[in-house]
Amino acid sequence: MSTPIRVTIWNEFRHEKKNEAVKKLYPAGMHATLAEALKKRPGLEIRLASLDDAEHGLTEQVVSGTDVLIWWGHVAHSEVKDEIVTRVQKRVLEGMGLIVLHSGHFSKIFKRMLGTNCSLKWREAAEKERLWNLEPGHPITQGIGDYFELPNEEMYGERFDIPTPDKLIFVSWFEGGEVFRSGCCWERGHGRIFYFRPGHETYPTFHNENVQKVIGNAVFWAAPRIIQADSCPNYQPLEKIAPKDAQFGKAGVLQESKL
Questions:
Q1: How many CB atoms lie within 10 A of CB 239?
Q2: Rounded to whole angstroms, how far apart are CA atoms 19 and 201?
Q3: Are β-strands 121-133 and 167-174 bridged in parallel, bridged antiparallel, or unpaired?
Q4: Where are the alpha helices (DSSP H) in the chain?
Q5: Under 8 Å between Cβ of 194 and 96
Q6: Torsion, Cα of 107, 160, 184, 112 (10° steps)
Q7: Which domains does the chain possess?
Q8: Residue 252 above 80 pLDDT?
Q9: CA nearest to 156, candidates 125, 193, 117
């Protein structure tokens, strides 16, 4: 039996406690709804974490024991401690997968990994979103047709200030006319990163079968191929290096002859 992929689903878990409409949609939290969906996929081991847990639920032990981290944040990005962001960044560079959802585009960890502002246009008007599948052969889009639709979502529009994705697999069109790069893949260090746009808290997006399928597929795509700690060693030569002329300086510059 193969080793399960260890998934940690991180959620601010603030809206569900303060907003009755959100609580009605996600009584145990958006992360719990995603967990129930992912548990239906064989080969996954699920853990939940949230902002108000000790060390945001992302202790050294949790992070080192995570293969794929799913991240949803919105109103409290600034409350995430920088040392936790550094801890997660280090693990991604070592090989952990990172899946960032919806307003997690403005999270400290996403900005840290991409090195840009990650800004965009937005509008909350409960409008239709159509997500076009640009890469039907990609592992993340398996089981998704040419497109799927969400009847009500928050609009995100271009320009999205991100580095050009290594692979763009979804583009969204919104009822108001905007388009958006809504499914983006990158590699950083040994780790894989996937940004997936849908998931505004006041809509039942994470109950949608296609959304759940994409996130589940992304977990398997982002799972580590290698976990390797960063190092910068002084490396000994594999072959014998021929001796150099005594007048050849260490900087590779001929030294002036001594008279």
A1: 5
A2: 10
A3: antiparallel
A4: 15-18, 20-25, 30-38, 60-64, 82-94, 108-114, 209-222
A5: no
A6: -30
A7: 5-222 (3.40.50.880)
A8: no
A9: 125
Alpha-carbon span 30 to 101, nearest angstrom: 11
Q: Comparing C-alpha atoms, which of 47, 68, 49, 65 is closest to residue 57?
A: 49
Q: Measured between alpha carbons, how far is 124 from 74 in angstroms, rounded to an integer?
A: 14
- Pairing relation of β-strands 179-188 and 167-174? antiparallel
The two structure tokens encoding residue 80: 């995430």
**Distance (Å, whole) CA 132 – CA 12:** 29
Residue pLDDT, tens place only, 155-186: 999 999 999 999 999 999 999 999 999 999 99
- Residue-wise pLDDT for 187-208, tens only, equals 999 999 999 999 999 999 999 9
Across the chain, what does the average pLDDT equal?
Answer: 95
* Alpha-carbon Rg for the chain in angstroms: 22
What are 208's two structure tokens?
A: 């949608």
Tallying the residues shown for the chain, one arrives at 259
Using a pLDDT cut of 90, give the percent of the chain over it: 92
Task: Name residue 112's amino acid.
Answer: R
- d(CA 1, CA 62) in angstroms, rounded, equals 23
Residue pair 25/204 in contact by the 8 Å Cβ criterion: yes
Instruction: Please report, as a single letter, which amino acid is at residue 162.
Output: I
Structure token pair of residue 126: 């409960």
Task: Using the predicted structure, report yes or no on whether residue 104 has a pLDDT greater than 80.
Answer: yes
- CA proximity to 47, closest of 12, 16, 14, 6: 6
> Is the entire prediction scored with pTM above 0.70?
yes
What lies within 8 Å, CB to CB, of 220 at 6+ separation is: 5, 43, 139
DSSP state of 191: E
